[in-house]
Amino acid sequence: MNQQDSNCSEMYSQIECIQCDLDEKCRYGENITISCKVKNGVECKGSKEFKRHMICQYCYQTPMWQQICNSMKGCNSVGPPPNSFPANCTVSPEVICLGSRWFSRNMPCKWKNGYRWSTTFVLSVTLGGFGADRFYLGRWQEGIGKLFSFGGLGVWTIIDIILIGVRYLGPADGSLYVD
Known about the structure:
The chain is built from 5 helices and 8 strands, in the order ββββββββααααα. The chain is α+β, with helices and mostly antiparallel strands. The strands form 3 sheets. It has a 3-stranded antiparallel β-sheet with strand order 2-3-5, with no helix packed on it. Helix 1 (117-127) runs antiparallel to helix 5 (155-165).
């Protein structure tokens, strides 16, 4: 690794280039000063040893804004609880913390994909007997069934108006409505 233009004490965003002496017996939440040094083979300007400040906490205890978590695979925002998914997370590169930098966390499913509740409701009321609401939500198999049964002779249409009205029936991809 070659960081010749960087000041050694400012290499906080390149945690792989420095090694810090962490005291695992520190008191949780305490602001502490730790000694760090640049790893062998890393070139930088200034002293190779310097002090850094950190809050005594394990990486999984850092605030959410200091964490980077993976995509929402397996996330379904609509439906019965729990509306969360297990995510693999790491802390931002500039954060110094105790323990493993990689950890699992349950994240809330709150993603949106452009489906509007108002559009769905209007489609359900006006063209629900033809399955337009189900087609719009990406539930095309149910839309075909609704189309050929004329909305279940009206019963299915009324049920869908209620389910969409209370936001129980949502997009097939598991996202939330935009509005």
